[in-house]
C-alpha cells in the first residue's frame, strides 16, 4: 500500500511538473505573439492626416506604404529569403561599402558629420525619422549610415530611396535573424532563462555555470542590442574605408528618434562651446528626456554635467579620440553584466583609471526626440505611432521661432544624487561567457581584414 501511495504521489508530481512546463511555454508563445502583433500593427498604421498636414508634400513619398509584393527603388524584390541567402546578401553589402548619392553630394571628408542610425524592424518610426532628417538644414553635407540587425527588403528599399544626402547601409552579421538556432541566436541547448543553477547543471545546457547576477540565463533578443551597438561603433570607426582618416563627429540615433530642423546647427554650437569652455567634454548630446519643453527660455542654453546613461543616451555624439578612450577599456564594457549598451558605457565611464567620468554638454531645449511608444521595451496595447509623432511635430512647429540661435550660454551642473550614483551592479542579462567573448572579438577585426566569420 505505501508503494502504491508513493507511485500515485509521483504521478501527481510529474503531471504537475508537465502542466507548469506547458503553462510556461504557452505564456512565452503568447507574449511573443503579442509582441509580433503590436509590431505588425504599428508598422501597418496609416499615417494620419494630422501628421501628413505637417509634412511637406515632396516628402510624403517616404511615408507611403507599398504592398509587400511590389518593387521599389531596390533592385531586389520583396521576397522571403532563407538564412543562407540573407547571409550572402549582407556579406556582399558589407564588403561593397557602397555610398549612395556620393556622385551628387561629393565624397566623404574627414570632418563630415556621420549620423549612425541603429535599425531593427520598426518601419513606421523609421519613415518619420527619415522625414525629419530630410527637413534638417545642411543634411546634404552629412553621411547617413543605417546599421541593421534585420534584413528586410521593404526597409532596404526605403533607405535606398533617400535622395537628400549620402547614404550607406551596414548589416550586423551576428543577428538573431541570421542565427535562429545557434549562438548568437537561441541554441536549442541554451539554458532556459529561469532555470536554477542546479537544474541547469543537470540539464548540461550551454553556459550552465554562468547565469547572470540575478540568476537568469541569456535571452538573445536582449543581448543583440548591446552587441549591435558595439559592432556598429567598431565598424564605423575602425573598419570602413571611407572613415579611415575621419576626425569629425559621429551622431548616434535610433529608428524611433525624430530630429528638429536645426539639430546640426545646434551640434556645431555644442562643439564650438565645448572647444572654448569645456575641453574635457567628451560627449555632445542633442536629446533629453523631458516631460515639458520651454524653448522660450531654454532654446539657447546648454548644460555641462557628468554623463549619465539614462539621461544622455539620445542623440549623443563623439569623435574618434573619444572612441579610442572607450576602446582602451573594452574589457569593462564587454564583461559588465548588463545587456544595455548605455549602462555598460556608464560603468566604463565611472571606472576610468586616473580620469573623471565622461562629461557631456547638452541642449536644454532638446533637438532629438523619442517617438517609440511601442516596440522593444514598450508594450502599449494601442501602438498608433501617429499620436506621438503629431505631438512632436506640433511642438517643433510652435518652437520654430526659437531655433537657430547665434550663440548659446553654458551652465555647469554637478548633477543630482541619482545622476552621480555609483553603479554597484548591472541590470544582468550578460552573464554568458559567449556574449562577453563575441563582444571582445568584435574589436579585433581591422580595417584591412575584409573577411568575416558569421558562425553559419
CATH classification, class level: Alpha Beta
Helix content: 25-40%
Unreliable stretches: 20-42, 69-78, 448-456
Describe the global form: globular
* Strand composition percent: 5-15%
Q: Kindly report the name of the CATH homologous superfamily.
A: Spore Coat Polysaccharide Biosynthesis Protein SpsA, Chain A
Count of helical regions = 15
Rg, Å, rounded: 24 Å
Number of strands: 11
What is the level-2 CATH architecture name?
Answer: Alpha-Beta Complex
What is the number of domains?
A: 1
The residue-averaged pLDDT reads: 86
The CATH topology is given as: Spore Coat Polysaccharide Biosynthesis Protein SpsA, Chain A
Main sheet summary: 9 strands, mixed
SSE order and pairing:
Elements: H1 2-44, H2 49-52, H3 83-96, H4 102-105, E1 114-119, H5 123-134, E2 143-148, H6 153-160, E3 166-171, H7 197-203, H8 220-238, E4 250-254, E5 257-259, H9 263-277, E6 281-285, H10 295-298, E7 301-306, E8 316-318, H11 320-328, H12 330-335, H13 341-350, E9 359-363, E10 368-370, H14 385-399, E11 409-412, H15 433-441
Parallel strand pairs: 1-2, 1-4, 2-3, 6-9, 7-11
Antiparallel strand pairs: 4-8, 5-10, 6-8, 7-9
